[in-house]
Amino acid sequence: VQLQASGGGLVQAGGSLRLSCLASGKIFSINAIEWYRQTPGKQRELVATITRSDTTNYADSVKGRYTISRDNAKNTVYLQIKGLKPEDTAVYYCAADTTDFSQDTPVVARYWGQGTQVTVSS
Hints:
The chain has 122 residues and is an all-beta fold. Helix content is 0%, strand content 58%.
């Protein structure tokens, strides 16, 4: 599975962005797509998850402002961010949790996309 994240940029506080995560390869093996964010010197933080059955979960710190969704026809998962705050500034990564049953033994793996920078100015 390959993931390509995009959509980051420089925005003013209060603005909105929509990040995209395009998946390719063994799409059928994806169980869930997650969005993380990371700032220098800090651990990567899980902010949103969407499962194969469209169950979504959010970190408490982003509930009400972040919305994760997907377009199966485009093999893309989105992260809509509204009411951006300077503390949302981070590199955002998408990740896929997968189970490949096409092998003799199921293979569990996580794949990461490259990050996309979100910078919020006050």
